[in-house]
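Sequence in, structure out. Go.
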Amino acid sequence: MPYWYWNGRINPADTRREMEAMMRQGVHRAIVFPWDGMEQRFLSKEYWTQVGAALRIARELHFTLNFADEYDWPSGHAWDPPFGDPELSSVLRRRPEFRMHRLATTEQEVEGPRSGQVASDAAFAVVGRRNDAGMVLPESLAVISSMPVPTSGAAV
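Output:
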């Protein structure tokens, strides 16, 4: 099923023309992606008016339409092009704490018993033991906030 990127000014006449052109080439269904450059603001009343027109035309032409759930990519942000705000995500404008974070990992081999401290900027630490083959023993894994290190063979 081809992607149909909606950009520019969306209107019923062009929507019909595009569907008919696809059908002449044997395409009878498409996934609509609202995309950069679309003049109607995503999720605005005008956008929904064009969605309704596209659905009516598709029904008349027996053309199947699917709609992507987002403007641009990835989904889940309710993207809103910059109209005076550098943040595109409506979600992040309202809830900046939802911004994606990543975990940086470090590994440290230690011999125990021993105690230590988790770095102050660490979200958490995990400690565990390795077997003689060097594999981490899943049953030994524990999330810790300070680092008491078990006997030999520990990996933090």
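Check: The longest strand covers residues 29-38. The helical segments are 12-24, 45-61, 90-94.
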